[in-house]
Amino acid sequence: MDMLKKSDYYFDLPEELIAQTPVEPRDASRLLYLNRETGALSHWHFRDLTELLKPGDLLVVNDSRVLPARIYGIKEDTGANMEFLLLEQKEQNRWEVMVKPGRRAKVGSRFIFGDGLLKATVLEVVEGGNRLVEFECEENIFTVLDQIGQMPLPPYITHKLEDKERYQTVYSHELGSAAAPTAGLHFTKELMERLEEMGVKIARVTLHVGLGTFRPVKEENILEHKMHSEHYYLPKETADLINETKKNGGRVIAVGTTSCRTLESVATFCGEVREAEGWTNIFIYPSYEFKVLDGLITNFHLPESTLIMLVSAFAGYEHVMNAYRIAVEERYRFFSFGDAMLIL
């Protein structure tokens, strides 16, 4: 079976299982453990990783930090309300943004945010109706965004986030994502320390998550889906740790589909794991042969998404669809603030 139809990845998800708020503490979320050889499932909590991982294992985390990229302001000449979502930095103060309502953002229009802390001029309308804008501010734009920006939560989260940091991983460092690498949201600093004490190593990569991550697959034949491109960096220390772990018979476990995409992109483009930086639009679906991964920690993904296709490629289509069916039956919480899966 080739599993190349979008509808192969459909499952029925009751709306009340879409997590609207994160659990406290972070590592109290549930963890479904899937053995990818046998398909066997067992139920744990995230803090139980100390029992499920072994000395010599390596966790690879994505240290990208989410930009508070949603800003609210007014049109300079009319005072009409506007919402901008910063998608991608093109040059220092030039960004591609998504604008609501778009009809007010004609070329040359000017906008004011945060009582004048930030101003913007529309330079052009780009593909897909987004705008290229030039921002003006006294300080660094990232400092200003930290003051006036809101977290760009995914569309299926309707509750307001009380604490901005809850949509960041505790190890986030490199600003640039439009969405959190959510598998990492379950880690606490204490859990990471306990894992390191027992001999599990932790290495970092950076992949800036684009909003394309939420773009639905529209084509029934998944091979016609156009993947978005995301910027990644794999440092030398991480490459060395991966190669050393492999040599010593340890397991390389990606925390999240973003870390997975980074590792597999580098191995595919370079033919080996080494320091590398670039853009990737790798699309992983069943029949893909993994070059680096021995394990994956990931949240529960949307039906018919590229992410559930990636997980199916790693753990086997039948195993994954069965695990999702059980997760729904057992009332696991889904998506960004939901529970997690460990696949080994």
What do you see in this structure?
The protein is globular and about 65 Å long. Helix 6 (306-315) crosses helix 7 (317-329). The longest helix is centred in the last third of the chain and has 14 residues, at 257-270. The strands form 3 sheets. The chain has a 9-stranded mixed beta sheet with strand order 2-1-17-16-14-3-12-13-15. The protein folds into 2 domains: 6-66 and 163-343, 3-Layer(aba) Sandwich (QueA-like), CATH 3.40.1780; 70-148, QueA-like (Thrombin, subunit H, Beta Barrel), CATH 2.40.10.240. It starts with 29 loop residues before the first strand and ends with a strand. The model has no long low-confidence stretch (mean pLDDT 95). By secondary structure, the chain is of the alpha/beta class. It is 20% helix and 27% strand. It has 7 helices and 17 strands. It has helices at 49-52, 141-148, 189-197, 236-247, 257-270, 306-315, 317-329, and strands spanning 30-34, 41-45, 58-62, 64-66, 70-75, 81-89, 94-100, 110-113, 118-125, 131-136, 174-177, 201-207, 230-234, 252-255, 276-280, 295-299, 340-343.
SSE arrangement:
Layout: E1 30-34, E2 41-45, H1 49-52, E3 58-62, E4 64-66, E5 70-75, E6 81-89, E7 94-100, E8 110-113, E9 118-125, E10 131-136, H2 141-148, E11 174-177, H3 189-197, E12 201-207, E13 230-234, H4 236-247, E14 252-255, H5 257-270, E15 276-280, E16 295-299, H6 306-315, H7 317-329, E17 340-343
Parallel strand pairs: 1-17, 3-12, 3-14, 4-11, 14-16
Antiparallel strand pairs: 1-2, 5-6, 5-8, 6-7, 7-10, 8-9, 9-10, 12-13, 13-15, 16-17
